[in-house]
Specification:
single chain; alpha+beta; OB fold (Dihydrolipoamide Acetyltransferase, E2P); de novo design (two linked rop proteins); 2 domains; 3-stranded antiparallel β-sheet; 8 strands
């Protein structure tokens, strides 16, 4: 039996009485489990299996498919309707990018903080992008904002670079064969050193970079991202 704090990322029907639950837990990371929720009374209440709520959960069993045997709601992030899609986008990022049963305690805290910021933020895309950059770092794709990762040279203003997963920030030469990656300007990388000072143009470039990078990793656009402007 396992006990943990966690968030519901997604539920899917499995049978007349059971559902499959994708859970993001503090102790074990992303988990897929089975649940038999009750409408009114029971150890797993149907009303608890909603996103953006911190649950104390009890899991039973062994192997890949555990059984969610009990839920107790501890806190609810009351995200306004205007920002709900951004929260669902965060959920889809976790579902698509974080492997199952991979514990990323720092990402759990970043996710929790991002949800709470969405409760009051009038700039939800900025909240989402900051979470995405933290997720990149947590997955081992750290952006070097000071030097290229080929020979350690300081970034040159006005130059283009290539960010390649596994190799980092590389000098870009259109006349030479290049590894798979996403083009990024040194000006954007330099601007990202001071997030609070970034211009709208910088933020738009950052958004484009993130979209292209995720597409390289997952090969298919995120469904929730298609519904978000900016």
């Amino acid at each position: 039996m396992q006990h943990s704090l966690g968030y519901i990322l997604r539920t899917r029907p499995y049978s007349d009485a059971n559902v499959i639950v994708d859970l993001f837990s503090k102790q074990a990371g992303r988990i897929t489990c089975m649940a038999r929720p009750a409408k009114l009374r029971g150890k797993v209440q149907k009303g608890h299996l909603q996103p953006f709520r911190i649950l104390q959960v009890e899991l039973q069993g062994r192997g890949e498919m555990l059984r969610l045997s009990q839920t107790d709601e501890r806190f609810r992030h009351r995200i306004p309707v205007a920002n709900l899609l951004y929260g669902l986008y965060l959920n889809e990022l976790i579902l698509r990018l974080i492997p199952q049963n991979t514990s990323l305690d720092a990402m759990y805290r970043y996710y929790q903080d991002a949800l709470q910021l969405l409760v009051e933020s009038d700039e939800p895309m900025l909240v989402a992008m900051r979470f995405e950059l933290a997720l990149m770092d947590g997955l081992g794709h750290t952006l070097n904002l000071w030097n290229d990762d080929h020979n350690g040279s300081e970034l040159i203003a006005g130059q283009r670079y290539l960010y390649s997963a596994g190799s980092g920030v590389l000098p870009y030469d259109a006349n030479q064969p290049q590894p798979a990656g996403v083009l990024v300007s040194s000006d954007l990388l330099i601007a990202m050193r001071e997030p609070a000072e970034m211009t709208m143009s910088d933020l738009q470039q950052q958004r484009q970079f993130l979209d292209k990078f995720w597409l390289q990793l997952v090969s298919k656009p995120f469904n929730s991202r298609k519904l978000l402007s900016f």
